[in-house]
Design goal:
The complex is a heterotrimer of chains A (288), B (345) and C (289). Chain A is an all-alpha fold. Chain A has helices at 4-36, 38-41, 79-115, 117-131, 135-146, 150-177, 180-187, 192-228, 240-249, 256-283. Chain B is globular. The model of chain B has no long low-confidence stretch (mean pLDDT 84). The chains are: A mainly alpha (288), B mainly alpha (345), C alpha/beta (289).
Chain lengths: 288, 345, 289
């Protein structure tokens, strides 16, 4: 007997998944464009200081300086332009760190889950030890070790977050490895590595993709937190985290210096997460 | 039946021993990693401590005092044997024993974490129960959306949002520190929240809570969302079971049915995940404490890293690791105790 | 005077096909009525409709359910639940899932007495002990302190029967209570239900697909096909001379263990076609009327 409730539920979820996917993709796409063409899109030079124009409110508030749509910070730099340029750092970190973490974490997880034995034992112990570290503290520690810079941040993110992928992929690989199609591949004569790559990897891919979008959002946050504690990239290039740190300090005098980069960061992280959720619903074979 | 109870107890004991063993291995691994990683840190902490113009001899003398001139392995050995006897070394920046410093700040972080946990359970539980009670309508839909957003955004951002909303826009709570500095505190321990209640000093208690509320809420929001989602899903499945239907025929109203019949069974699977997420919450105190200038362990940790205070860094990291593993152990124990099927072998 | 009177009850899936087509039947106090259907979920639906526990995807599209002089369907939901709780009880199908695994047996019998009817706990527990003894459970004290998973399926079904009689209901709905049990245990449970019903004078609505069970336990029966009542008579009349061709075919299809040589006689296609035509005719008239 067909269950009307389930049928309605499915179409509802599909509608929601579509909306989520498009909204988040739209925002992230906009960010990409902003990041790529920042020097041409941004109205002002993000580094240009003008102390006479310090702490100017955004355009719709009385006393604003024309041309500075979102106001200026305490050194007179245009908030809007800094946000646009900040997208460059944010997205580069997101894409690069996300990708590397994904590859390393997923590979280790795949090896542990499929090969089992001492490989699994070693990697699982490693994961346990890693997860006993408070992540933020660990990242701050690593930056202190590696020194500031874009690649330090990327490395720090990879070192801390590979466990996220490893755990999930390991579980999936173990589950898949027990299934019949793997046994038939082995009987057909494929070697272990071959089986792993050919049979298991494609089935693990949807989960990995979803985690990847999640990881990109996390990477942006880690970078922001590190900028906030002044441990980010060494140049003067604007970062959202740095702007937030500044904004926090002058929150009573110039709320816009905190609000706009915070809002941008908020929407970006939300979009990455919803993108992941939307993809997960798309990949779910029950709903397809 | 008595024989089965006996073997059930043996099983629990055996599992406990295994867990303690793995815990020890994990902590050892953490100790090794933190010790050697921070030794690679550029910047000589001794040099940073001394006034400019210090001679090489001064630096060498102070280094010897802290044992930093010995080979790494022996330094590690000294430190580990110290830890096992309860001595975590001496802080380079404050010259005080690390153990004292760490135990001094620990209560603040514990109170914050536990307050956040309680808030998360209340918020998440309320969301799940309300969503189940009024399921299928707009209420449930709104709760789902709110949950989704709360889940996607980390505690750091929530902290900032809360600072904006309730620290600046509608200034209700304090956004900095643990307690108003001008107040005179008659406390013996550093458990301000707890002790103020014990001493019935509700004025102090209110002041402390108004300082802790924002950071605790920021920590609580993502966990509340997880609890809400998981518990609601669990309740949804439980509500379809036969014994719930039977309860309805007895004349109980819907709310009663959810609370009496479904909740206990639905809550159990949520418990293990909450335990793991609670450790993430505790990890989050590092940045949240910094954000709100809250004088806890996390805030001290960041300063320690910036100042390259090696013994202090080691001490704090080991303590965090110990707390994490302790929480995991407690959660597993609770699960075994609360599941009637497991309890009776 | 019938305690339960179902009049022209129609229910169906929301925006979907009908499950019950204008079903009417009555159960008097102290009488047992059985209901038989070939297969599917429709016959359970009558019991569920009476007790107010229809699944969320199913709705009532017409008719009345009169319980002790009140039409349940006209009452607001909370009031309906209260009334049903006070007057009726369910003996569920699967004893393995019908008891809450987190609660001990004792409270699961006494809760409705204490919480809803306001009994004192001591009185409620005494009554629980008496009932457990009635359903032939030795050591009722020990059982009351036990958890469901410690007891066998047969024992749990006895507990559920005891629990159903706890508040002295006027009507009991037994939803295929022996289906999930061993054949050996089935007979005992059936006998038990009969005895309890006779002793307490309760009206019993017994839902089953098994004609053999009906013959042992019930006094009247209704046969349904596709949610439509095709026959309604006393058990004696039915087995002696069924009126509807479908009923006759059902009887003929029941394997007779007294004659192992006899072949199996499934219900003939012609009979199925005929009764389907009846259903279709009903649907057409329902659509117009």
């Amino acid at each position: 007997m067909a269950d009307a409730e389930t049928l309605d539920g499915r179409s509802q979820v599909r509608r929601r998944a579509g909306l989520r996917l498009w909204l988040s993709a739209a925002w992230l796409g906009t960010l990409c464009i902003l990041a790529l063409f920042a020097p041409w899109i941004a109205p002002k030079d993000p580094l240009a200081q003008d102390l006479f124009l310090g702490r100017m409110p955004p355009a719709w508030v009385a006393g604003a300086e024309p041309g500075y749509w979102l106001g200026t910070d305490s050194l007179g730099r245009d908030v809007l332009s800094r946000i646009i340029h900040g997208a460059r750092v944010a997205l580069s970190v997101a894409l690069i760190a996300g990708a590397i973490t994904c590859v390393i974490g997923a590979t280790l997880g795949l090896l542990a889950g499929f090969l089992r034995g001492w490989v699994d034992l070693l990697i699982s112990r490693l994961i346990d030890i890693w997860m006993a570290f408070p992540p933020v503290l660990f990242s701050i520690l690593l930056i202190a070790v590696l020194g500031p810079g874009l690649w330090s941040i990327i490395l720090a993110i990879v070192v801390i977050d590979w466990t996220r992928f490893a755990r999930v992929v390991r579980a999936e690989a173990m589950a898949q490895g027990a299934m019949d199609y793997v046994a038939s591949a082995r009987v057909a004569g494929r070697g272990r590595i071959g089986t792993m790559l050919r049979e298991i990897l494609p089935n693990v891919l949807p989960t990995v993709t979803v985690l990847l979008t999640l990881e990109m959002g996390i990477a942006v946050i880690v970078e922001a937190i590190l900028s906030f504690v002044n441990l980010s990239i060494s140049t003067d290039a604007p970062t959202w985290g740095g702007m937030i740190a500044e904004g926090r300090a002058s929150i009573h005098q110039a709320w816009w210096v905190l609000v706009f980069p915070l809002g941008t960061l908020f929407l970006t992280v939300l979009s990455f997460s919803q993108l992941g959720e939307g993809l997960k619903d798309r990949f779910d074979p029950v709903l397809r | 039946m008595r024989f089965m109870e006996g073997s059930g107890q043996m099983e629990i004991l055996r599992v406990l021993c295994m867990r303690l063993l793995t815990t020890a291995v994990t902590l050892a691994g953490v100790a090794v990693i933190v010790f050697f990683v921070i030794r690679v840190v550029p910047g000589n902490p001794i040099a940073m401590m001394l006034p400019p113009g210090a001679t090489e001899a001064d630096i060498a003398r102070l280094s010897a005092l802290y044992g930093l001139d010995k080979p790494l392995i022996s330094q590690f050995g000294i430190w580990v044997s110290g830890v096992l006897q309860g001595d975590l070394g001496t802080s380079i920046t404050t010259r005080q024993p690390v153990l004292d410093l760490v135990l001094g700040r620990l209560p603040a972080t514990l109170e914050l974490s536990i307050m956040a946990l309680v808030m998360a359970m209340l918020l998440g539980g309320a969301a799940a129960l309300t969503g189940t009670r009024y399921r299928g309508g707009r209420t449930e839909g709104t709760i789902d959306v709110a949950n989704g957003v709360a889940l996607s955004v980390p505690d750091f951002l929530w902290g900032l949002v809360l600072i904006l909303l309730f620290g600046v826009l509608v200034p209700v709570f304090h956004i900095s520190g643990r307690v108003t500095p001008s107040l005179d505190l008659p406390f013996v321990s550093n458990f301000y929240l707890f002790e103020s209640l014990l001493r019935l000093r509700f004025d102090l208690w209110a002041d402390i809570v108004s300082h802790m509320f924002m950071p605790a809420l920021a920590l609580a929001i993502p966990l509340a969302a997880i609890i809400g989602q998981l518990l609601k899903q669990s309740l949804k499945e439980t509500m379809n079971l036969d014994y719930v239907t039977l309860a309805r025929t007895k004349g109980y109203g819907e709310t009663r049915v959810i609370l009496r019949e479904a909740l206990r069974n639905a809550a159990l699977p949520t418990l293990t995940l909450v335990g793991v997420q609670f450790t993430f919450l505790i990890g989050g105190t590092v940045i949240i404490e910094r954000l709100f200038s809250y004088e806890g362990l996390g805030n001290m940790a960041i300063d320690a890293v910036i100042n390259r205070d090696l013994p202090l860094i080691q001490g704090i990291v080991i303590l965090f690791a110990a707390i994490f593993t302790a929480v995991n152990l407690v959660v597993d124990l609770l699960y075994t105790l609360l599941n009637p099927r497991l309890r009776h072998g | 005077m019938s305690f339960l009177a179902i009049k022209n009850l129609s229910i169906g899936l929301k925006k979907g096909p009908p499950l019950l087509r204008r079903v009417s039947l009555e159960v008097s106090s102290g009488e047992e009525r059985g209901r038989v259907w070939e297969s599917g979920a429709g016959k359970s639906m009558i019991g569920k409709a009476v007790l107010g526990i229809l699944p969320p995807s199913v709705e009532v599209t017409g008719g009345e359910i009169w319980l002790d002089g009140t039409d349940l369907l006209r009452l607001p939901l909370a009031e309906r639940r209260r009334r049903i709780g006070a007057l009726a009880a369910l003996i569920p199908q699967d004893p393995l899932t019908a008891l809450n695994p987190s609660h001990r047996i004792g409270p699961q019998i006494t809760d409705r007495l204490v919480d809803i009817l306001g009994w004192r706990r001591a009185d409620a527990e005494a009554r629980a002990r008496d009932l457990l003894t009635e359903v032939q459970i030795a050591e009722p004290e020990r059982v009351m302190r036990a958890y469901p998973h410690e007891l066998s399926g047969g024992m749990r079904q006895r507990i559920l029967i005891a629990s159903a009689f706890a508040a002295e209901p006027k009507l009991i709905v037994a939803d295929e209570p022996t289906t999930a049990l061993d054949v050996t245990v089935q007979k005992q449970i059936l006998k038990l239900i009969s005895q309890m019903q006779a002793r307490h004078g309760t009206a019993l609505l017994f839902v089953t697909h098994d004609l053999g069970v009906v013959s042992k336990v019930c006094q009247r029966l209704s046969v349904l096909y596709a949610g439509m009542v095709v026959e309604d008579s006393t058990v004696g009349d039915f087995f002696a001379a069924p009126r509807h061709p479908y009923s006759a075919a059902l009887l003929a299809a029941t394997p007779k263990y007294t004659d192992p040589q006899a072949g199996l006689n499934p219900v003939p296609d012609s009979v199925i076609a005929a009764v389907r035509a009846e259903v279709a005719a009903f649907d057409r008239s329902a659509a117009h009327g």
